[in-house]
Amino acid sequence: ELKVEQNPLFLSMQEGKNYTIYCNYSTTSDRLYWYRQDPGKSLESLFVLLSNGAVKQEGRLMASLDTKARLSTLHITAAVHDLSATYFCAVEGDSNYQLIWGAGTKLIIKP
Amino acid sequence: DGGITQSPKYLFRKEGQNVTLSCEQNLNHDAMYWYRQDPGQGLRLIYYSQIVNDFQKGDIAEGYSVSREKKESFPLTVTSAQKNPTAFYLCASTAGPAGELFFGEGSRLTVL
Prior knowledge:
Radius of gyration of chain A: 13 Å
Distance between the termini of chain A: 40 Å
Number of strands of chain B: 11
Structural class of chain B: mainly beta
Shape of chain A: globular
Oligomer: heterodimer
Distance between the termini of chain B: 36 Å
Low-confidence stretches of chain A: none
Largest sheet of chain A: 6 strands, mixed
Strand content of chain B: over 45%
Structural class of chain A: mainly beta
Order of helices and strands of chain B: EEEEEEEEEEE
């Protein structure tokens, strides 16, 4: 069974701290996607990682992909309250038209 | 501006009624998708379409139907056969296989 596992599923942290969200997957995909969802809202694309060793950064968020370990990380640097959201990772499934989604990591950043 | 428009944003339905959710995109994308999201949960694929006049079932297609008569449009009908339809429905599109998904704002369906 194809799986995508995120951990932690819930994270409460203080502003200014650093933390990492992990996304493990069981497919042989070389592509991985990170999305952000604010409460009651739709999903917004954050990063598209297309090959082993890919690293992308946007502001305080940095995503990386290790296809050999089947692991992606989303690192938050000096967290601020505006980053509070649920973060999802997704990888290609058997059909490259389908994505397999993680359960999401709900991140709460306290002032 | 290019994007995906879903309507209505909120919909209330009585049990036993069919309802249709609209999804229109002007991104010239070939592939379109419907996902369901329950509170505190991830996304589950209902149907997807790679090209006009063709679509495939996703993981939870029972109780739903779709059509793809135009490239821009991919409406979803939630039928009375769907036993627990209350959920947040998201439409998305991609330019092709393995592409980045772009999402609409979602439609929240509540069955009374």
